[in-house]
Write a structure and sequence with these properties.
Length: about 160
Amino acid sequence: MLKCDKLTDENKKYYELLNNIQSELFDLDSIIAKNPNNIKEDEILFDKNNDYVKKIEEYIDEMTNILPPLRNFILPAISLLISCIHKARTVCRRTERNITPIKYSPHYFNEDTLDISLENINRCLAYNRMSDYLFTLVRFSIYIEEVKYIRSEILSKNN
């Protein structure tokens, strides 16, 4: 994890949320892998109360309130942790781009498709907040790992 005085018990929760993601991604995979026209009326609804999306948005807002305004691009090469989060974010974005056309494909969704299938794919697409969360987590990680510039001895001796 991060080696930093600013990583408190309060902000560890932003990283601990990542522990649940793998299970939720497996749930999403099972929804997307199913033929939406072979779903039963009693099919399970993904994130029925939007609890997960609400949690992501809450954490994004909390971290954003701590962070200074974004004024530059963020490079992923600061640390292995930040590079991994960046990579996960790009995979999330790519997946989001690949899922969106499925919703509008008549091969998958048509007049015979049950509402629960449409609702589940919409909830899967709402999960795109994950990539926004990961981007904010990268910014937050950089902020709490911040290394401040200190004038080198070479320059200090010349003054």
